Amino acid sequence: MSHSHNHSHHNDHGHHDHVHDHDHDIEPALQTLLWKQIEFEKIVTLNESQRDSGAQIVEKTWPQRLRPEPVLVSDIDEQLLMTVPFAGTVRLHSILIRSSSASTAPKTLKVFLNRDDIDFNSAVDATPTQIFTLSQTSDVQDVPVKRALFGNTYSLSLFFEDNYGHDATEIYWIGFKGDFMKLNREPVHVEYEKAANPKDHVPIVGILDAASSGPRNGM
């Protein structure tokens, strides 16, 4: 793995927001789930201690979010860099993350839009699309993005730059919600059940039954 320890201080030119956990508020809104639209086999995670563990935590469904395994653990230091491609263009609403209340919980998350070429050096030097300060909690955190910035998303790169003081970072689940777009740019709502259209801040649940996973790419 090419992963330099000589990282410069992060720049603060991106949009920086603090995140609060809302696990107890999350209710079903399956039509905004971006689970089936993720290309799991193309997820790439740098500095993961176990091959494909990054893809595996994204592939967890909502009912599996509290399971302790699989878990994504960083390797040579606390940083993680994950790129998640979608099967088409999406309008992203928010990112869902579950870690823990321990010092292994990720703290600073920098999100880069449509940067398939990003690595640790460019993640440190480049201006992110948006920056978040994550909470130190085992609850699911609903991380709302600035929708005007993520209206034409085909991939997301998530740079977990630091944590709350541990040598390694641990993450148990990552999910996304938003609208999947057709070629004519009309939103597609996945119709798993009849439900009213959710308001902007209504959280979601995941798919109840996970599809069998195929082979995944490693680092």
Biggest sheet overview: 9 strands, mixed
Strand elements, count? 11
- Report the average pLDDT across residues: 80
Distance between the termini: 7 Å
Q: Approximately what portion of the residues adopt beta-strand conformation? A: 25-35%
Radius of gyration: 16 Å
Structural class by sheet pairing and helices: mainly beta
- Share of helical residues: under 10%
The ordered string of helix (H) and strand (E) elements is: EEHEEEHEEEEEE
In quaternary terms, these chains amount to single chain
What key phrases describe this protein's structure?
globular, two-stranded antiparallel sheet, single chain, 6% helix, nine-stranded mixed β-sheet, disordered C terminus, mainly beta, 219 residues
